[in-house]
Design brief:
This protein has 148 residues and is an alpha+beta fold. The protein is 44% helix and 14% strand. The chain is built from 6 helices and 5 strands, in the order H-H-H-H-E-E-E-E-H-E-H. The strands form 2 sheets. The chain has a 3-stranded mixed sheet, with no helix packed on it.
């Protein structure tokens, strides 16, 4: 099960700049660095992990700035938050997908698959709930690393 964001893994900063301009928030250096990091990493990262990676690449930002940046990108629909145990983890928003979250280590993984999407359709038929564009399933359990 490949992460949903796999096609974004080689996204250059120019692609992130275009996405920012298309979705409204101004293209500040911090927003550009965070969006590019999430796109290139192909993973869902916590605020602390975003800060660590940006510091490692020479683009350090303050915790409050990282939080505000991720909230702005989420509000603009460019990023989504995966909530599992521990801190929220942020990933690039793309085609509809779902998430798995490890209850032990907190790892959140995007899950692009027709089967969970079909399950959401079944939930809609059973309950009448119409998920919006950000609606997704979150499946909790233990990841392969924590099961060993």
């Amino acid at each position: 099960m490949a992460p949903q964001t796999e096609h974004h893994r080689t996204a250059p900063p120019d692609e992130s700049r275009v996405r920012l301009r298309q979705h409204g928030p101004s293209c500040t250096p911090g927003r550009l660095h965070v969006l590019t990091l999430l796109a290139v990493s192909g993973r869902h990262l916590s605020i602390a992990e975003v800060r660590e990676e940006l510091t490692r690449t020479g683009n350090a930002i303050h915790s409050a700035t990282a939080y505000r940046t991720l909230e702005t990108l989420t509000a603009a629909g460019l990023v989504h938050a995966g909530h599992g145990p521990g801190p929220a983890r942020y990933g690039i928003t793309g085609e509809p997908h779902h998430h798995t979250a490890c209850r032990q280590c907190g790892h959140v993984e995007g899950l692009a698959s027709r089967h969970p999407t079909d399950a959401v359709g079944t939930i809609e038929k059973l309950t009448g709930l119409r998920p919006d564009a950000s609606g997704s399933l979150l499946v909790h359990g233990r990841c392969a690393d924590c099961c060993d």
